[in-house]
Amino acid sequence: MIVYGIPNCNTVKKAQDWLKENNIVFEFHDFKKKGITAEKLNEWCNAFGWETVLNRKGLTWKKLSKEAQLEINNQALAIAYLVAHTSAIKRPIIEKNNTPVLVGFDVAKYEQTLL
Hints:
The protein is of the alpha+beta class. Helix content is 48%, strand content 15%. It contains seven helices and four strands; from the N terminus they run βαβαααααββα. The protein has a four-stranded mixed β-sheet. Helix 1 links the parallel strand 1 (2-5) and strand 2 (27-30). Helix 2 (38-48) packs across helix 6 (75-84). 27% of the residues are buried. The mean pLDDT is 97.
């Protein structure tokens, strides 16, 4: 299992704590340091929808002008933006057996999917 995110994100910390409490072994991929490929983002967007993978609640997105936000209106444009601005990826994203299974942190969804 791989947890994708950034280490100083509170939601990522909550997810990691939950995984540890439930004795679930995982690898952490820090996409601020290791980056993320357009191919991987495309997998996630196909699994969850690009509008879910793009974190519109975060500061990175909010720093964009309204015009720039409106221009990101499809999966290809969202992926191009996210490759360049990894902080705008919704976190964490969890893959199990190389398949994207969860985005964000919700205890009920984690219990249902991972236990």
